[in-house]
Specification:
48% of the residues lie in helices and 14% in strands. The chain has a two-stranded parallel ribbon. The chain is of the alpha+beta class. The longest helix is centred in the N-terminal third of the chain and has 13 residues, at 3-15.
């Protein structure tokens, strides 16, 4: 995928979904209050919102290789602190 394709996709989003759901995105600009912390694998094939049928702002995502949380991992500690 090229940079031009990514930019074109962003323009399409702005002209369709963003406009259709402007009120939702306006609320999200004020901050986030997700009700779920989703810990998942860094996998380009899995789009959390799509597979759960949720809107932006509902799920706080932490993704890493292998979906592993080793003891003493400061990365997950900061995610938990921020998420909670």
């Amino acid at each position: 995928m090229s940079l031009d394709e990514l930019l074109s996709g962003n323009e399409k989003f702005r002209n369709t979904l963003f406009k259709e759901h402007r009120e939702l995105y306006t609320e999200l600009m004020k901050g986030q209050k997700p009700t779920v912390l989703w810990i998942g694998c860094s996998d380009s094939r899995v789009q959390t919102g799509h597979i759960t049928g949720t809107n932006p702002g509902t799920i706080f995502n932490h993704r890493n290789i292998g979906n592993i949380i080793p003891p003493g991992d400061w990365n997950i500690s900061t995610v938990l602190e921020y998420g909670i």
